[in-house]
Specification:
Blueprint (H helix, E strand, L loop, with lengths): L17 E4 L3 H11 L5 E4 L13 E2 L1 H9 L3 H7 L1 E2 L3 E5 L2 E6 L17 E2 L2 H15 L3 E2 L4 E6 L4 E5 L2 E5 L1 E4 L6 H6 L3 E5 L5 E8 L9 E4 L6 E5 L6 E6 L9 H11 L7 E10 L2 E5 L3 E2 L2 E3 L5 E2 L7 H22 L7 H22 L23 E4 L2 E2 L15 H5 L4 E6 L6 E2 L8 E6 L8 E5 L5 E5 L2 H8 L10 E2 L1
Parallel strand pairs: 1-2, 1-12, 2-8, 5-15, 12-21, 23-29, 25-27
Antiparallel strand pairs: 3-7, 4-7, 5-6, 9-10, 10-11, 13-19, 14-17, 14-18, 15-16, 16-17, 19-22, 20-21, 23-24, 25-28, 26-30, 28-29
Amino acid sequence: MVGATASPGTAAASGPEVVVVGAGPCGLALACDLVRRGVRVLVAERAPGLFPGSRGKGIQPRTREVLDDLGVGDAVREHGGPAPVGMVWKDGERLREHDMFRRAAPTGTEPYGEPWLMPQWRTQEILLARLRELGGDVAFSTALTGLDQDADGVTAHLTTGPVRAAFLVAADGGRSTVRRALGIAMTGEDVDPAPMVVADVRVAEDALDRLNWHMTTGKQGFLTLCPLPGTADFQLAARFEEGEPDTSPEGVRALVATRTHLAARDVTEVLWASDFRPRAALADRFRAGRVLLAGDAAHVHSPAGGQGLNTGVQDAYNLGWKLGQVLRHGAPDALLDSYEQERRPVAADVLGLSTRIHRGEQERGAEVQQLGLGYRTGPLSVGRAGVLHSGDRAPDGPTGGGRRLFDVFRGPHFTLLAVGAGTGLPVLPLPDGSPLRTHRTGAHEAYGEGLFLVRPDGYIGWAGEDPSELVRYLARFGIAPVTVTAS
């Protein structure tokens, strides 16, 4: 793990500064973000290995931007693919095509225009490989049995022994051990009283093509078979109007034979299967002292609309830079309060969206892409310039020399962006190791003209014209330039 000096009274110099409980997509993304900031991290995962199933297979455009910044964009592109168009079947015959998604071509400001499919196990493999490349790792077969915290830190009681750290993050799923230990309630509802089963299966090559997302409906409920890009597998999903799902290989084969034109023997392998009841729930708090909740530990979604994994990864992206500023750059601990203040309203809105989609009350439109999510009313959003408000997502765009703005933003730093010929770039003398970079670029229609401080998670924190206001704003994050002059 990356070495650095811990704060007094929190963690030994060789110990972790942050314990992340859970090695799902959220926990792994957070660990990658922290380790690249020089923060020592222990990822504790109770299972002996990564989750084996495809469950969260949809990667939304905004999450692709996040994964690109974390250094795995090429791997996601290589191992994933666009969602296939749906094919509705009836009585063993193809009835019609049905495309569930809004598809948009990439633009200069939004480089990813449509949902990307990749099984969850592959997403986790890619993130784990990146974490190891950065110098971190996961402690598998390591469960949390309890925790204690005080003003100086957290003691995580693990099956391998107690560990002291400055902070602990719960990324351990909807049945979070951490959340239960803290006594934080989840408020929510059953989205659908009918149980569902999801499974990864392989189908005989001559029995079903991989060109469509195959869908059947009937008195017993719907069943879908979606080809998973980069694999030989299909994800099966089925709703049960009556009875309980049988997730054994024999039960999954019988389910396919009952609801489709395929025979049981056409399902050559059942790789993984699970049952659940769709539920929407939101934790009453995302922070309790030095412990923070992220991903499914903080909010549980219906799978409709592909929002759960994406919202969790973006929780990690919001939290990672804030922990980094506190632990590495002297930002006040109160900065971490903004995590709940920004992410809990987003999670509430996304929960409502996925519930409406599940119930057929709303189509999968532009909202599911999560490109429009932002923090305009959040506590870290100050000012506006050009056509953008603070709290908005910072758009991509060309910036000369074959580079793009996302190339400038990529990495664990803030970017002060001066846009337009008439905008001067303040000279900010900064100490070595400062997390702020500056960049000047020509006019951009998506920005207008002005000064924009882009946060490490790609949102505009401050926008305006007065450099002295900018200096006061930067001080909130432990960034203190000595003097300010105009360029």
